[in-house]
Structure formats: structure tokens, C-alpha cells
Amino acid sequence: MEETPLRIMTADGHPVFREGLAAILSAQSDMVLVAEAADGNQALNLFRKHRPDVTLLDIDLSGMSGLDVIDNIKKCFPNARFLVLTTHAGDVHVQRALKAGASGYLLKNTVCKYLLDSIRAVHHGQRRIPSDVASTLVEYITAETLTAREVQVLSQVANGNANKIIADRFSISEDTVKAHMKSILSKLAANDRTHAVTIAIRRGILELDAVSS
Fold first, then answer.
1. Whole-angstrom Cα distance, residue 4 to residue 14?
2. Which of 203, 67, 209 is CA-nearest to residue 144?
3. What pLDDT was estimated at residue 2?
4. Angle at 189 between CA 184 and CA 190, to 5 degrees
5. Measured between alpha carbons, how far is 60 from 46 in angstroms, rounded to an integer?
6. In 3-state terms, what secondary structure has residue 117?
């Protein structure tokens, strides 16, 4: 007797990428695509309607981020399975996704290689993090975490603000801002302010949309 195909939902803001996923899934006898979402709110609604076995979603969804989608669904459906497909390779991105409740994390440029096995593994309650992603986690596993205030200060630096402006904005002294920057440079092993911002964006400590806001 044939097994019931795995019911898959995708959530991604790029139509061409969704079409690519649909083509891959349509060639599998043990999988069926039941829904496609273009943004976070649609993903939430379609999940509630279709209750897929595994949801493939990007972090960068409009309206509601992919991580917020996972968090909201997990509150009502704790057994829901999620596989993140993204371009973000930073260790902080991966940690946030796993903390939100994702069972797997794939970079979009590796989808052809890992997607199908990862879907099946996630459906069976396993975690799937390819070696290239795992190596990034290992690289920073002992790294010190920036405090909330340090992240705020670095975000201001990323937007081109001088120490005096940052001090005024947070009602602190310039010396305190300098102390925060010294700590930030040490924790990130950065050479200077620009290097610190670059590292923070690459790792996912700062988001590009927040930097430009």
C-alpha cells in the first residue's frame, strides 16, 4: 500500500524561486505541494487552512518575517515542521531560526543538493543543518554576544552617526559610547568601526533594513 505523500507548503517572496521549488516537488512521488505563500501573513493563513507536514520558508518575508511566522504557528501547532531556505549564512541568523522552532536551515544556493533529503528528515523529526552552515555556527560558538545596548550603538554607527549624536540619542556620555565601541570591537574581533559593522551584518547581528532606517 502506497504511503500518503508529504504535504508541503512554500513561503517565499520571489515567484521564480517558488516556481523552482514547485518543479522540484512535482517530480517527487512522495511529496505534494499544497500551498504557496508570497508573504508572511499569507503564510500564516495558508498554514492554518492546509496544515502541511513541512513548510519551506524564507526569513525575509514581507508583512511578517519568516521567524515570526514560525513563532506564531508553533504557539498553536507545536508539532509543525519548518525548513528555512534563505540567502543568510550568518551564525546569528541560524541561531534565531532554530530558536524560533525551525528544524532545518538551508542556503538557497544549496537547495538542489540538500532539499529533498532535508524535507524527509525534518518530517521524521530530525534536524538538518548542512556542513557549510554548521561550520559557521562552530566558528562563533565561543564568541561573546553583544549586549542590547551595544547592538543599538553599533546600529547608530552603521547609519553614520558620530559618538556625540549617539550619546545624545541614548542620553549617555560620549565616554560611555566610546566604552561600548571598545567592547564591540573586542567581541567582534574588528579592526575599526566600519569593520565591526561589516562583521555584524554578515553574521546577522545587524539587519540591512535596520541599518538603512
1. 29
2. 203
3. 52
4. 75
5. 17
6. helix
Cα separation, 208 vs 62, whole angstroms: 14
Alpha helices, DSSP H only, in the chain?
Answer: 15-26, 40-50, 66-76, 91-100, 111-123, 131-139, 148-158, 163-170, 174-188, 193-203, 208-211
Q: What is the sign of the dihedral through the CA atoms of 131, 135, 136 and 140?
A: positive
Q: Mean pLDDT of successive 10-residue segments in the chain (213 residues)?
A: 84 97 96 97 97 97 95 96 95 94 95 95 94 88 91 96 96 96 96 96 83 51
Q: What is the pLDDT of residue 209?
A: 63
**Structural domains in the chain?**
6-139 (3.40.50.2300), 148-211 (1.10.10.10)
Model pTM? 0.85
Name the DSSP class of 142. T
For residues 150 and 187, what is the distance between their CA atoms, to the nearest angstrom? Answer: 10
pLDDT of amino acid 210: 53
User: Burial letters for 86-122: b for 16+ Cβ neighbours within 10 Å, e otherwise?
Assistant: bebbbbbbbbbbbebbbbbbbbbeebeebbbebbbbb
Enter the C-alpha cell of residue 29. 512521488
Give the pLDDT score at 195: 96
